[in-house]
Amino acid sequence: MSSLTAARVLKPIGTAGSLFAFGLDVGRAVFRRPFQFREFIQQAWFIASVTIIPTALVAIPFGAVIALQVGGLVAQFGAQSFVGSAAVLAVVQQAAPIATALLVAGAGGSAIAADLGARKIREELDAMMVLGIDPIQRLVVPRVLAAMMIAVFLNGLVSIVGVMGGYVFNVIIQGGTPGAYLASFTALAQMADLWQGLAKALVFGLIAAIVASYMGMNAGGGPKGVGDAVNQSVVITFLLLFIVNFVMSAIFLQIIPSKTG
């Protein structure tokens, strides 16, 4: 009984180590040739097609809620002129990367895990290795790079739609002035905040694709195992995203002030 308990306790540690090693293998395979450009384009188009509309729809309430909450808070301190800059900071730094990552992981990541899991139980991956073809280079690398690229583009979409949604709700519902909202953009927000959001989106896309690919390539037990791998990939990705977001936010808060003075 004690051995079973120890095995259960150590299993998550072994999985984390295997996932990290898988990420290193993907990093090495990126620089191998030939690069599967056609697969990359197909995967990028697929991920964009399943995420762009939900991302745009989610960005509107994100921007609206942030504008309403921030507007109500700063109004209590008599700082209505800073509503625009505060809303832009919240959307660009936090809301846009997280919303993008959740949709990339939930839609694109689940599709990646299901595709690779189906190939695994059909023994296609084993057949590729027998033929001397590396599945990581052939299948995983294009999906990881496609997810990272689409995550950056979707982050820009969420930022634009979120800021526009915040503008509409602040001006119409809270009675703010359009000039004050637009003029306050540069009061607190800086170019470094935009780079922070882009860096987060890039890392979140990387994590989502690697976790989905790892869970798919290690699926077992038939169709039920593929379904379990898809569910586990989404849950693990969400947990990692929030942890990494906290770490990156803390790092940027220490780095950016020293650079901007």
Defining key terms:
261 residues; mainly alpha; 9 helices; 87% helix
Task: Describe this entry's structure for a reader.
The chain is 87% helix and 0% strand. The radius of gyration is 21 Å and the shape is elongated. Helix 3 (83-121) packs antiparallel against helix 5. The chain contains nine helices and no strands. It is mainly alpha-helical and 261 residues long.
Calculate the mean pLDDT score and round it.
80
Proportion of strand residues: under 5%
Sum up the overall morphology in one term: elongated
Q: Describe the biggest sheet?
A: none
SSE string, helix = H, strand = E?
A: HHHHHHHHH
Helix residue percentage? over 70%
- Say how many strands there are: 0
Distance between the termini: 59 Å
Number of helices: 9
Calculate Rg over CA atoms.
Answer: 21 Å
User: What low-confidence regions span 5 or more consecutive residues with pLDDT below 50?
Assistant: none
Helix/sheet category: mainly alpha
Oligomer: single chain
Brief overview, please?
The protein is an all-alpha fold and 261 residues long. Helices cover 87% and strands 0% of the residues.
